[in-house]
Design a protein that fits this description.
By secondary structure, the chain is mainly alpha-helical. It has 10 helices and 2 strands, in the order αααααααααββα. The protein has 2 domains: about 45 residues, Arc Repressor Mutant, subunit A, CATH 1.10.10; about 150 residues, no CATH class.
Length: about 230
């Protein structure tokens, strides 16, 4: 008859700790490689970066799709950890500045991983569900940060404005500013708000940016989405 005393528990706990450590190393290596190149990394490259054997990559995750699931969960966990809204009760300018700073930080850090997940989303319903949860978190934060403005709108107009806000602060919108237009993180810093006029049947757009050129470009982008 086997004994299940403290020594056996310590052995089991040690195995679990080593397994969790190696999983974390592999996930971090995968994410680092995605940030360096848009090409999906191979198992051998991930293993080399993590300092483990390729066999261990498959033992821990089954296949590279399983690793992408784990990476998506990692992104979700970090997003939740940093989701406490800063200055959500501030005035409009304070809330805009806080939201822009946070969104820029998230997009700069996670854009390559987001693209990899999007690329594989139709290969797995589970992955699409994870992406859906990330989208939901983005929209919920927008609602919270802009609730003083959104609360004065009827439900259809509020939903439409949230679509505009989400589209214009999407990962790919950040990617276009950084890659296509060659903007630095600081130069890509811009923000806007849209509200209904108090005296006319119009929407009023206020947009600020670090340069007139960027302001005019983003103004045209925002108006195109609103008019679509």
């Amino acid at each position: 008859m086997r004994k299940s005393g403290p020594r056996r528990r310590r052995t089991t706990d040690g195995r679990h700790a080593r397994s969790a450590h190696s999983r974390r190393l592999i996930i971090e290596a995968y994410l680092e490689l995605l940030r360096e190149t848009p090409r999906a990394p191979k198992a051998t490259e991930i293993a080399a970066r993590a300092g483990v054997s390729p066999r261990l990559v498959f033992e821990r995750f089954g296949d590279l799709m399983g690793l992408s699931f784990a990476a998506a969960d990692h992104v979700l966990a970090e997003a939740r950890a940093g989701s406490d809204p800063r200055d959500a009760d501030g005035d409009r300018r304070t809330r805009l500045s806080a939201q822009v700073a946070r969104r820029a930080e998230v997009c700069e850090r996670w854009l390559p991983i987001w693209r990899a997940l999007i690329h594989h989303q139709y290969e797995s319903p589970d992955l699409r569900q994870r992406l859906g949860r990330i989208y939901d978190m983005i929209v919920e934060r927008l609602k919270l940060m802009y609730w003083p403005e959104l609360s004065g709108l009827d439900a259809p107009e509020r939903s439409r404005l949230l679509v505009v806000l989400e589209a214009l602060t999407d990962f790919e919108a950040w990617g276009r500013m950084r890659e296509r237009h060659g903007l630095s993180v600081e130069a890509a810093d811009w923000h806007f708000n849209v509200r209904p006029s108090n005296t006319e049947p119009l929407l009023r757009l206020n947009l600020e940016a670090r340069s007139e050129e960027l302001m005019e470009r983003k103004r045209d982008d925002v108006l195109a989405v609103i008019r679509a």
